[in-house]
Structures are given as structure tokens and as C-alpha cells.
């Protein structure tokens, strides 16, 4: 048995696979986010407890010895830990918006662009740079007390293995301090954000991922374990996205668009990031929009409808949702890809007394699709496109996405991030697995030509509405 652990933002998962990549069992546990006035935090004790719970449950269900485990999880945010990997304070989530004013200032004074030209990383309020700078100004005692500022999976890895020091991988280190050309920290990037005096908090970078053996909590003692890449590149690895130009769309809490590249992107409009991967000379041009299924969750809850009704709701109203349009920028920290706008907020347009819940739901799904198309174009998609994530469990929404994007979708099912984490661990620990078999898509969904043509016009309208909304957000 091979176990993949995916420590998500709202759900912690552990999946068991056999040698041929067949998914044998999955266990999940929810984890809470505390949101208040743009502040979004998570209890690290609860997150780690959920990891142990899913591991114990999945290994109990599949009575085979665990040969190997791989770990991935949500990226960005700041998880301050002591020397043993235990929390100094609650984790600051990647969804946190408290550093928005800092990012606005860096956008205005040129720091934002200067950093992007060095590292290929476009700052957003919930990434480590702005959050560390905010803590340095408003909560310096927390930084003084911490041994390291890590990402989610790094905390879990240190606790599972008892590692004597904090360590991260090249993918999580890519935002925002890693030079993608040298795969090491850029000291000038730290200085640009006024954080040179906090250099000691950056964890060691294991290139490409950290390896160790489990102590015995959750996993049998001695189990080989690897940590990384984080969830976005882990999904790309689990979906078989390797050749330059090939892409992946993850329809999850975060709407993430990834395109494989043979060089980092340091030119053009500063947005997204170039993620260093498990292979030198290979990057993922990432455009991780802030809100994906989270936007739909909000609309379903607000309209009093349910997730299980999504397919019926999408077929109850035609393309265009009777004129209702949704700009799906619901995150309290604004948007980060394929542009950065901390002040941008969602807009619902064309709503009247005749509008139905189905109209609002369909318009939201179409708006998310348009946002994905914008991100994929900016990331340079030229090859086949794979899709995964919770949103693809809806056949109707998957067909809608194919129409909105105007291209075939290779649907990869199951726990794709966990699958990628196992493949990364196998490579590092020298365990031979058939990557082609592990990453084979379940099916391909073709776009309808007429609906695709209709949505091409809808996409042009979306860009016009977005331009006006961005202008209002700047005032």
C-alpha cells in the first residue's frame, strides 16, 4: 500500500493506492477556518490531529503494509512553529487579507514589480512575504518566539518524522523568496520586503523535496515519507502534466491554472508565479485564482440550494443564465491571478425579480469558467488540458467548463494531489512506479461547438465587465 496525504484548506485527506495506482480507500476529516474582518486563521493542533485521524483510519481499512507515504498540502500562508514543529500561534491562511494595504503600497512604489522580476512571484496578501511583514510590524513577539515560518505540509512533516529542524521544498519556497533559476533563496528579495532581519525564519530548502521516516504516529514507525510538492504542483504531477504547454485546471476551493514551462516567467504583467518542480529545468507557470468552489458554496448557501442539486440547477436555465452575470471574486483579500487586485470584490449583475436560484448558480459557474479561461491564457496554455478537483464531480459543470473554455478536458478522478505526492515520494525513495498508469485520465469531455461559440462572446463580455470592476476597485 502507498499512502498519499493531502492537507487541504477545509479538508484533510489520506488516500491508499496499490502498486498500479488504483485508489483503494480515502479518509477525510474537515478542518475549520476562523474568518473575521479579513483575518483568516487555522488551528495547527486541529490540522495535525486531523492528519493523524485520517492516517489511522485509512491504514485500518486497507490491511496491507505501508511501503511508502507522500505528503502534500495547501501552500502559502504563514505557519509559525517552534524548534519541534509545534505552533507558536494560529496559522495565518493563504486566504488572509490583513496584509492587503502592504501589497497596495508595494504595487504603488514599484517593490511588487521589482520582486516579480527577480523571483517570478507576484505578491498577494496571503503569501508569506506580506504576512511576515505584517507580523513584523504588528506582532513582532510572535516572530521572535518562532524557530521557523513554514507552510502547512512542512509543519506536518516535522511532527510526523521528528525532524530536528524545519525544512520545505522548492515548490513551497517558490513564493515569494526563491530565485527560480538557482533554486535557492534570493537575499535581495528579502531585503525588498524589509525582512532581511528575519532571514533566520526561512526553513532550509530541500531540493526537490524533504525525505524522512515516520516516528510511528499515524503511520507505522519507519515508513519512508517524502514532503512535497505542495498541492498545486502535486496535482500537476498526479495528472501527468509534464510537457511544456500542457495544462491543468484544479476546480477546488482555489481555482488554480497550471501550465508546464521550460523557463521561468520573469517578464510580462506581474501575476501568478513560476513554481520550481521536482525536475531542474522544469517549471509550472501558475495562475492560482483566489476563489473556485468557495464562490459556488457561498451562492448555494445564499440561495438556499444544495450541492447535490447542482446538476439539476445547471440544466434548469440556459447558457447565459437569462442575462445574469457573476464576477466571482469573493475572496476577502481580492484577487491574485492573472492580475493582483487586493480591493476587488465579487459583483452580481443583471439580477431582477424574475431571476431564479438556478440563474444565480449557473451564472456563478460560468463566471468561474471565464476566470479560469483568463488564467489559462495568461499562463500560456497551448497543449492538452487536464482537470481535477471537487468541481469536476458534477458532470453538468464539467460539460459547462468544456464549453466555456472551448477545448476538450481530460478528467482525472480521485485524490490527484495525494497521487502526485506518492509519485514524488517514490522518485525520491527509489521505488519504481508506472507514472503513466498512475496518471491516466478517467475520460475526456468534448465541448459543444455551438455553446463554445456562445461562450466565446460571453468571455469577451466578462473581460469588459472585469476591466470596469478593477477600475472601480482602484478608486
UniProtKB/TrEMBL annotation:
UniProt entry tagged with the keyword Transferase: yes
Listed GO MF terms: kinase activity
Domain of life: Bacteria
Keyword entries, A-Z: Kinase, Transferase
Residue ranges of domain Carbohydrate kinase FGGY C-terminal in the record: 276-426
Keyword Kinase assigned: yes
One Pfam family here: FGGY_C
Domain Carbohydrate kinase FGGY N-terminal: 1-238
Protein family (similarity comment): Belongs to the FGGY kinase family.
Protein name: Carbohydrate kinase
Protein's organism: Streptomyces pyxinicus
